[in-house]
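HUMAN: Mind making up another protein with tokenized structure?

ASSISTANT:
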Amino acid sequence: MQLDEVREDARQGNVAALHDETARFHGDATALEQHGETMTHAELRDVSASMAGGLADLGLEPGDIMLQYMPNCTQNLISSFAGFKAGVVISPVNPQYRKRELTYQLEDTEADAVVTHAALEDHLEPALDELDWDPVVISVNTQSEDFVDFADVRGDDLFVERADDDVAYLPYTSGTTGKPKGVQLTHRNFRTQLNSTLSQEHDLDDEDVKSLVWLPLYHITGFTHTALQPIVRGGSVYLRSAANWDPDAAMELMESAGITHFVGVTAMYVDMVTSERFGDYDLSGLEVAGEGGAKMSVAVQEEFEEVANVDMGEGYGLTESTGGTHSQSGSTFGLRHGTIGQPSRAVDSKIVDERGDEVPIGEEGELLLRGPQVMKGYHNMPEATEEAFTDLGYFRTGDIARRDEENYYEIVDRKKHMINSAGYNIYPSELEEFLAEHEAVAESAIVGIPDERRNEVPKAYVVLRPDYEGGVDITEQDIQDYFIEHVAAYKHPREVEFIDELPRTASGKIQKFKLEERHDAAEAE
């Protein structure tokens, strides 16, 4: 039986079956590499099965939720496959999160377990202290007597069958309300997404695929497309810390390891192209160079393509769609820069007006998606789930798009008020709610302002309380320090401006476009 036939048989039930079958054919090939340490596909299959048994021995049952608060590392992917095999729902957490954000996700999921790393234990413990229950904590190289060491979580091999509609993964994404929502991604969602591109790039043998993973694994693109897809295909992934991005180190590894696949955000390509050593490295091994999260500068794109001798492709996807739904690289007529390409296999995509009617070719409207890769719903949020879908089951993306006569799509506007900073989605209302807790702040508004490297960054407009009696004057730096202490670094406002009052409509809604215009006018002076 050939691998493609085996994969066809594994298209029902637990998504982990895909890699178990891959390991039958590519067992001796490298699956994971991190700074010279490697693991084969057979080793990954076996250790994840044993860890699945260890999770069961610790009392975890199918359907229980395990937070994954980890950096990019081998153990991150081992625990993911182990969780799938044990029937446990994995809920990834940004390793930049601190007490406030961690506590929210712990409480909202009612997590039964947490898998983490010794380097993050000091940040995790204050959040655990806020809980009125004690989840099992598993930590790599743990420094705590209260935690279980990652290497000790071993038992009899375990593989729990799961139904198509069972939740496998529960990432959190903020909405326009600022309240993070758990996105229920099922085993079927992942199987659909992983199988959608397993047969692409026919010129490469499966074991020749080498993906450089510098995007964070907690992010759906990093997890699904740069890690799981190459692994399930039989290729290898090279893991590097998302917190320690280094353009020269990336290009050096592309050359020395013969990296074939790299997906990054715009800021990464800008950093490489502007490096003094750009052009010194042989990047000709790249077969796929992908970018997402923000529109790429044409000049940067052309310069990278010329030096690396590879066509760069942009794509589009959401956490709610388990990753990509549109791609240039898989499009019928090839790359078409400035677009996100055509819908991927199994994606039902259309653009509608405010009444829900499909718009003619070339006209703008909201992008809707339907298909087996679209989420089951939002965790414990039935009303938000209902609002997210049309009566016909299409997911409302909130993004404004248009398409041409050859079905290439272009995103022309962003979700309302969302700030896209180097591929990170930042929702102002979350930060505004946090600022409202500051004793000197009456109200605030967060807007995105242009940034050459990160596309845009947050700026805070703050109205101080006239009755504040703190005894000292509040400065812009005080506001920034307040964020630094409590919120992930990528969300920090890069600028703070005090303002007497916020511009509003007659109904009292803040007119953020006027604040953006105010910033632009000040920059122009």
Summary: The longest strand covers residues 441-451. Residues 362 and 404 are 5 Å apart (CA to CA). The first helix runs from residue 3 to 9.
